[in-house]
Each structure stands twice: as structure tokens, then as C-alpha cells.
Write a structure and sequence with these properties.
12 strands, binds zinc ion, six-stranded parallel beta sheet, two-stranded antiparallel sheet, TIM Barrel, 15% strand
Length: 250
């Protein structure tokens, strides 16, 4: 009888210890900061145009602080916990498809061996200021992942279901045809979407979609509503560092 009682006490103690030894950590999954860039150029006062020197300084910071920029496939593996996360993962994304992403950002990233992902609006390709298809192929050959940001960059919730489908599916089909690789992730123009948008993405089996909701992308978020950190060129460098290294939200 006494022995049995002792065993219970030991069991209880072990359970208590287990509870306290495992703090709040890892209740949920993993989170990864996803930085969202647009144009890398010189346009003082424009929030979405980041000076090349600032961009270079940010990439130097990532390298110096042992960040590991991921490919989209690595991002998917880490987020779905099929692959252990490096100590400081980050996904670098560019929206819209500006020519300077190939002409200015690519050489800076290549100095560090960093990959990136670009969300291209296919209707803007080959227009002034935007990438040409040969430049898109150049980025793809350099290890960038290319995915869809619609055809004409519309406000999706203002469109009919048919028009939304066309914007989303035609852009993806064009990229897949040009590059011969799947483009099953998406970024919402202006971060805007409605139920129809989500139904189209689910129906077409898009794997991930990025909003402009601020914060880290996390395996706790719906895969078609992942958060990103939009890089604001008007904010001080310290703010960028702070956003990047914000504590994991659990
Ligand atoms: Zn955009």
C-alpha cells in the first residue's frame, strides 16, 4: 500500500516537473519573418521605393547577424515542419516586378548568395520600368522563385468572380508557361481579398498566399493568409531591425 502511494507521489512530482520544465514554448508551430520589398531605386519620399544603399545595408545586416534567406521550397518545408528551421530564417519577397529588382537588387543579393521570391503582375511585364520576360527568366535562372501577383494589379474585391478568376489564373498560367515551373503561391495586390478570392485560390490549389497583414508568417495562420513585413523606405533603419526581430507571437 505504502509503495503504491510512493509511486503515486513520484508520478505526481514527475508530472509537475514536466509541466514546469516545459514553458509556454512550442505550443504551436514555427514562424518566419517574410520581408516585402517593391522597387529598389531612388525616389525620395516614396514609401515603396527603397534606396539601393539602404537595401544593401539591410542585406549586410542579415549576413552579419547570421540570417538564412530561404527559397520558397525551403520556406514551405520549414513552415510545414518537414525541415528543421535554421536559427534565423527569413523569406525575401519582391512585389509587382520592377526592372530594378533584376538590375539593382539581384547583384546585391548575389554578393551574399541570397535567394528571393518575386510576385510579378504579368500584364506589366515588358512595360516601362518593369521587368522584361528575359529578365524574369534571368531571375529564375539565378535561383529566384517567380510567382503570381495577378495580370493587371487590380483591387480584387471590386471585381466579379469571373474577372478575379481571369486575373489570378491567367497570370499563373503565363508564368508557368514562360518558365516551365509551378507558380502555386500568390501575393494579393494591395493586400486585398474577399471570400471569392479565397475560393478561387483554394479551387486552383494555391499553396500559400501572402497578405500585407503586419507580422511574421506562422504555421498558425491559414496558408492563404500569411502575414508579411512590408518594408517602408521612410522608416529609420532601427525600425526595420526591430520588425525583423520581433518576438515570436505565441
Ligand atoms: Zn503589388
Amino acid at each position: 500500500m505504502n509503495l503504491w502511494k510512493n509511486k503515486l507521489v513520484v508520478l505526481f512530482a514527475a508530472l509537475t516537473l514536466a509541466c514546469f520544465a516545459t514553458p509556454v514554448k512550442a505550443k504551436h508551430g514555427v514562424s518566419i519573418p517574410v520581408l516585402n520589398y517593391h522597387s529598389i531605386g531612388v525616389a525620395p519620399g516614396n514609401t515603396y521605393v527603397l534606396h539601393p544603399d539602404t537595401f544593401a545595408r539591410q542585406m549586410d545586416y542579415l549576413a552579419a547577424h547570421h540570417y538564412t534567406p530561404l527559397t520558397l521550397a525551403e520556406f514551405a518545408s520549414v513552415l510545414s515542419q518537414k525541415m528543421p528551421s535554421p536559427a534565423h530564417p527569413v523569406l525575401l519577397t519582391f512585389d509587382d516586378g520592377y526592372a530594378n529588382n533584376a538590375e539593382v537588387a539581384l547583384p546585391i543579393l548575389q554578393q551574399h548568395g541570397f535567394p528571393a521570391t518575386i510576385y510579378v503582375s504579368t500584364g506589366l511585364v515588358n512595360t516601362p520600368g518593369y521587368l522584361t520576360w528575359p529578365q524574369v527568366r534571368q531571375l529564375s535562372a539565378a535561383g529566384w522563385d517567380i510567382a503570381s501577383h495577378t495580370v493587371t494589379h487590380p483591387h480584387l474585391p471590386q471585381l466579379s468572380k469571373k474577372a478575379q478568376r481571369e486575373e489570378i489564373l491567367a497570370a499563373r498560367a503565363r508564368i508557368e508557361q514562360e518558365l516551365g515551373k509551378p507558380a502555386d503561391t500568390f501575393a494579393f495586390p494591395y493586400g486585398e481579398y474577399n471570400r471569392t478570392t479565397m475560393r478561387i485560390l483554394r479551387g486552383a490549389k494555391f499553396r500559400y498566399a501572402f497578405t500585407t497583414q503586419p507580422g511574421r508568417a506562422s504555421s498558425d495562420q491559414p496558408p492563404l493568409e500569411l502575414h508579411r513585413i512590408v518594408v517602408d523606405s521612410q522608416k529609420p533603419f532601427e525600425d526595420w531591425v526591430e520588425q525583423l526581430s520581433e518576438p515570436i507571437p505565441h
